[in-house]
Amino acid sequence: MRLMEKNGNLVRTLTPAELDQLQRFHAGSLTSYHLLTANRALLKIRSDGHWLACECRNDHLPVMHVRLDSSSGIVTMVNNPETHDHAVGCEFAKDERETGSVRVHAERLAIMLPPDSPLKLIGQFRQVSEGDAVERIRNTGADGPAQREQHRQVSMLMTLIEASGLNSYSAEGKQTLTQQFAELRKVAARYALVDRVPASNYLETRIDMKHMLMLKSRLVESTAFQDKRRYGLMLDCVVGTKGRKLLTFDKPEGFDFKGQNLLWGGTKTEGPVLALAIYSPSTPGTNFYELINVASVPVLSRGHLFPVYRAEEREALSEMVSIINWMATKGVKVVMRRPMIGSFTMDELVLTGANDRVLSVSLAASPSGPEPTSDTFKRLSDFKSLQTFSKYVMGFFMNNKK
Ligand SMILES: [Zn+2]
Q1: What is the model's pLDDT at position 303?
Q2: Rounded to two decimals, what is the model's pTM?
């Protein structure tokens, strides 16, 4: 692989280690800090204005560039529009659209936020000249502060879901909607919006005008923020977003929001969704509060906030819930869990029964990344119908009851 200038001049050839990193990045097989390191390296190539020429063939080298999705902050390597084809079998022949690595990357980057440290979910206003403050310049670079805060906001929503156990279902652990929100508030109490002030103090779990005004009056009167930008959190199960509107069940025409809709999984999925919105003044020195960025995760229903990866899963997920309930009546306890942070693939669901019986399943139509190789991984689309799949799952747990 060569690094080249846009006029075709060679900058240098990548080292074998760098090439290996890019291959693994493109295949979607990097995690945690290896992924962050690769991201950083690619962003450097992008900011240097360089292109990559693939040496899979020696006549006409296919040329690629680093793409940055400014709304999600996701970095990918894509082939230049008019470039030559890669050699057959070259790892870079496929674009990220086909391999699904974009989606994998989005999720892998979500991190479990450490409790008891300030969340930093919004940028500070910055002084440009005397008495003239503006919101800090946003989206100046991929690794810029705005992206970091947006990433943290998605991570915060993931953390809330994971730590409150909403991504886990069992017949005996079934909770009412009120209990599910109570768990979310309990988790929020472990995080600080600013120094040692629990996020739950400035959290509303209903998005409507009344609760915005209640949150605003608490924020305006607060002494906790001192000179820092004031903000609160609004968390609710809503219809979804449309453009810069957050659509709720009570107000289908929606509420305006000023920032981005940050998506778990990188692709928009039909609601209902659990939305975490930041509520803050958009300009310094005013008490004009607005919804800023909105992070969202699709959920099973308005009454059951179990996270959904893609809309196509909904029917099968409801079926899984029913068979788990049914097996419980036969004395077979099964827990279904969706790993939200650091999982192998986003569409994976892990079913655990007695005697350490573990079955990992995907309800998505096609793989979104590298597949687990164990024989206890099953994909719904490999079965004749949802019914035969359900029978398989029940057989797996019930025939081995001892
Ligand atoms: Zn190639």
Answers
A1: 95
A2: 0.71
